[in-house]
Amino acid sequence: MDKKTSGGGLHPSYGYWHWMTRVLAVVVLLFSLHLSHPLYAQSKLFGNKKEASSSSAEKKKPSKGLFSRLREKRMERKAASIDPLPESPAGPSYSSFHGPLSTAERKNPDQVRVLILGDSQGQTAFGPELRKLLLDDGYEVIFHAVKNGTPYFWEGKWRSPVLTRLYHQETEPDSGNSWRNYSMTPRSISEYVKTYNPDVFVFQAGTNFEKDLAQQNNDYICNLISKSVESAGREGAKILWIGPPDARDNVKSPERQKRASNTLRGLLENVSEKQGYSSFFESLEVCPMSNSVGGDGEHPTVRKAIEWAKLTANWIDQSIINFECDGAHHSDEYSAPIDSSPDETGNSKLRPSANDDNMDLLSSVPIEKRFSMDLKLVTKSELKDVKTLEYTDAFAVYKYELCNYREVETQLAPLELTTSSVAVEGGTEREIQTVYVLHWAVHNKGDGPALTRVTTRKSGESFKMDLTPLKEHPLKHTIGTIYQFNEFDDFLAPVFVSIDLYGERTF
User: Fewest beta carbons less than 10 Å away: which of 261, 371, 420, 452?
Assistant: First the structure.
């Protein structure tokens, strides 16, 4: 029943709400008609097409390829992500790696196998991105990134395990970027060739030995590089070398970096000439580093590392196309067999022996260069948090007083020891003959870095040590590439190392 007023008419509010109800019904009807109108549907359809067009523009398009069997549908790579990459997969940070490398069977005989032997740059965002892009280009990729990697390592001049990132062998794009970090004794180039038999052997190195390359007397490092390149190509693999990226000016001067790069390029000229194309990729200009960037000044930021990887992958891809080779046919530029004869230590050059870690490489030190010293510890270089050294071992310089100077004075005369003052009781000082010893202070045996037993030595304690000058040590060049703590500025004083250097790695 309608509500009525006392005069018999409708209540005033009734007409208002009745009118509003009708208006809302009309609005809903019009809106429904709009949604179902063909023009509206067409606009949504075009919108979807536009979005789809934009999406498809990002997809890879077929391009011309010279390996019809290998990459008939070769695709352009996507723009690389600049998001930070994970430092390591889930699970333990390290595992110890013993025994020979595992042979990697070819899944596709027509696929070009690329072996990359890198250094710590391969443990930055550069490594995973380069690997991913080469997989996208249709290659099989095997990648080992060795912390502090240098020709000293590859040519058997370092027998202590170092952190090595082994990227999982992959043959297909979008297979992920999985790897595992191992504490592993560096392997020879001959073992890599024997185990993996790559079609293309890519060196990615230089950061750790730029100083050696840039100096005038660089014959030793140059000979090792030449030997490494020759070994890499003995079974016919093509050789490519990725030079080191730019460093901050206060870490490495631009002049020194350029000299080192020119030296490295010159060492590869013969290889470039034989292969018909340049085998050296200059990274200094394509991966510059601003002096305002933090960090250690040698490793690029994530963004720069990925940009560097993209340019490097393009170069490797184009180089392989230029070589016109495939996975079934090596180049015949090199035909010398792999040298499996014993080396100077009596061990096979192909595989390290079980006791490589304990080999006495000091057998070549002349007797007159070994000194038996009675030493008293004066002070030692302060060690930083060793957790920051997760990628490597480290050495530290200790300062000792030589207590039996008269006994060894004649032998040590050519070395010109320095003197220093130490405080004694009563507030006076006395002069002492100073001996600086480089000790193995941090070692990683596979479960992370840890301080060695030598770091427990305290000032005032006495020790009897058999030492040799560092400059006479067979590992002097390699030791120069390992991180060192040195708080002393006595630059003219000789530095010694223990005859039993490897023995200092105990905890």
Answer: 420
Q: Where is 22: in which H helix or E strand? A: helix 12-36
Identify the helix (H) or strand (E) that includes residue 410.
helix 405-412
Q: What is the pLDDT of residue 394?
A: 92
pLDDT computed for residue 267 by the predictor: 96
* Count of all residues that appear for the chain in the document: 507
CB-side exposure of 101: number of CA atoms within 13 Å?
Answer: 26
Q: Enumerate the H helices of 137-218 as residue ranges.
A: 151-154, 189-196, 210-214
Whose tokens are 């490092």? That residue is: 221
Point out the residues of the chain with pLDDT beneath 50: 1-10, 13-14, 34-92, 326-329, 331-360
pLDDT in tens, 209-235: 999 999 999 999 999 999 999 999 999
DSSP labels, 369-396: G-EEEEEEEEEEPPP--GGGGTT--EEE
pLDDT value for 60: 35
Q: Please, are residues 64 and 154 in contact by the beta-carbon 8 Å criterion?
A: no
The pLDDT of residue 390? 65
pLDDT at 130: 96
CA–CA distance, 501 with 355 (Å, rounded to integer): 15
pTM (2 d.p.): 0.70
Output the six-digit token pair for 489: 């500025």
Helices 219-232 and 254-267 cross at an angle (nearest 10°) of 40
CB atoms within 10 A of CB 312: 25
Q: Rounded distance, CA 44 to CA 239, Å? A: 54
Q: Which CATH superfamily is domain 95-323 in?
A: SGNH hydrolase (3.40.50.1110)
CA distance 445 to 22: 84
Report the alpha-carbon distance of residue 422 to residue 428 in Å, rounded: 8
Q: Can you give the pLDDT at residue 169?
A: 83
Q: Which two three-digit tokens encode residue 62?
A: 């077929």
3-class secondary structure, 58: helix
Rounded CA-CA distance 461/375 in Å is 8
Give the span between the Cα atoms of 62 and 76, in whole angstroms: 7
What are phi and psi for residue 70, nearest 5 degrees? -85, -45
Q: How many CB atoms are located within 10 Å of the residue 495 CB?
A: 21
- Delimiting residues of CATH 3.40.50.1110 domain(s) in the chain: 95-323
Q: Of 190, 149, 146, which Cα lies nearest the Cα of 166? A: 146
Q: Determine the pLDDT at residue 464.
A: 97
Q: For position 276, what pLDDT does the model report?
A: 92
Alpha-helical (H) ranges within 181-277 are 189-196, 210-214, 219-232, 254-267, 269-275
